Amino acid sequence: MDDLKQRYLGQIAEAGDEAALESIRLAAVGKKGEVALKMRELGKMTPEERQVAGPALNALKDEINSALAAKKAALVDAALDARLREEWLDVTLHARSRPRGTIHPISQVTEEVTAIFAEMGFSVAEGPRIDTDWYNFDALNIPGHHPARAEMDTFYMHRAEGDNRPPHVLRTHTSPVQIRAMETMGAPMRIICPGGVYRADYDQTHTPMFHQVEGLAIDTDISMANLKWVLEEFVKAFFEVDGVDLRFRASHFPFTEPSAEVDIRCSWEGGTLKVGEGDDWLEILGSGMVHPKVLKAGGIDPDSWQGFAFGMGIDRIAMLKYGIPDLRAFFDSDLRWLRHYGFASLDQPTLHGGLSR
Ligand code: DAH
């Protein structure tokens, strides 16, 4: 019996698949298997022999059966392992690296300004950066002899001798877009015009190219009160503060009458600028009621229409909001600066989603 046991347990251990196991089972413990044959021999034994051999044969049968079951389970496990190994699929994805580029603070602030004014019904108008001196000056009530022309440090385009086209300049402000918008859109209208402007000037707060946003609203009953409300709403939304004091200071611009410069209350405590509190005032824009001559130059009848206008430095308010001390750095194309002050490219400023996260 020991012999039988060794043989079959050995064969079971060696069996490579279920079919092999099944033939071992039939040969060992099947109805006509070796153990069954031995059982049949019990009848020929003496009762004493039978008492020993019977339980021993049953025990052998049980042992072979459980070895078969264990081996079968092991074969099933191994088959599953093999199949899983074969069908393995890499479902991981490489992490996508953050986009390398960032949004320049000027672009970001332009988007922020646009989002705020869009909410108040202003659309965006654009004009050329190279414009005639008529649009840049004359149409805005700045005639040839006017000192404002000299003050603006204008870049004039070179003209070859005998070239009689009207003189062109790099626009010194976004105000000429007022005239172009009046010509194409007529009244009533509400627009802002963001864009680059040029003046021959260079120091910590001046660069030869910088950015402004012009605002213009024309209707039959527009007043300084509307201007004040719009600017207050703008400043609150832009600087993301609840209350702001604005100070309107009487001023002079050729293209507005009356004219006002607007300051916002701020503090410089500890060297950092806080908008909306403190005892200091900071000038942020020029504004006023559009001069009748300017409306006329744009083809709009000043007896039927009136409007307000304002012009604001985008770079300036960007410096204020984001604590950028030197204007020149905006245009140095220094990658370290751009990565530090730049904005995530997928984060579009909206009033509901937040302007600057
Ligand atoms: N164009 C002026 C400048 O560049 C700014 C300005 C002042 C624009 C008053 C306006 C305004 O529309 O009404 O200095």
From TrEMBL:
<dbReference type="InterPro" id="IPR006195">
    <property type="entry name" value="aa-tRNA-synth_II"/>
</dbReference>
<comment type="subunit">
    <text>Tetramer of two alpha and two beta subunits.</text>
</comment>
<keyword id="KW-0436">Ligase</keyword>
<feature type="domain" description="Aminoacyl-transfer RNA synthetases class-II family profile">
    <location>
        <begin position="107"/>
        <end position="332"/>
    </location>
</feature>
<protein>
    <recommendedName>
        <fullName>Phenylalanine--tRNA ligase alpha subunit</fullName>
        <ecNumber>6.1.1.20</ecNumber>
    </recommendedName>
</protein>
<keyword id="KW-0067">ATP-binding</keyword>
<keyword id="KW-0963">Cytoplasm</keyword>
<keyword id="KW-0030">Aminoacyl-tRNA synthetase</keyword>
<comment type="similarity">
    <text>Belongs to the class-II aminoacyl-tRNA synthetase family. Phe-tRNA synthetase alpha subunit type 1 subfamily.</text>
</comment>
<dbReference type="InterPro" id="IPR004529">
    <property type="entry name" value="Phe-tRNA-synth_IIc_asu"/>
</dbReference>
<dbReference type="InterPro" id="IPR022911">
    <property type="entry name" value="Phe_tRNA_ligase_alpha1_bac"/>
</dbReference>
<dbReference type="Pfam" id="PF01409">
    <property type="entry name" value="tRNA-synt_2d"/>
</dbReference>
<keyword id="KW-0648">Protein biosynthesis</keyword>
<dbReference type="InterPro" id="IPR010978">
    <property type="entry name" value="tRNA-bd_arm"/>
</dbReference>
<feature type="binding site">
    <location>
        <position position="257"/>
    </location>
    <ligand>
        <name>Mg(2+)</name>
    </ligand>
</feature>
<keyword id="KW-0479">Metal-binding</keyword>
<keyword id="KW-0460">Magnesium</keyword>
<dbReference type="InterPro" id="IPR004188">
    <property type="entry name" value="Phe-tRNA_ligase_II_N"/>
</dbReference>
<dbReference type="GO" id="GO:0004826">
    <property type="term" value="F:phenylalanine-tRNA ligase activity"/>
</dbReference>
<dbReference type="InterPro" id="IPR002319">
    <property type="entry name" value="Phenylalanyl-tRNA_Synthase"/>
</dbReference>
<keyword id="KW-0547">Nucleotide-binding</keyword>
<dbReference type="Pfam" id="PF02912">
    <property type="entry name" value="Phe_tRNA-synt_N"/>
</dbReference>
<dbReference type="InterPro" id="IPR045864">
    <property type="entry name" value="aa-tRNA-synth_II/BPL/LPL"/>
</dbReference>
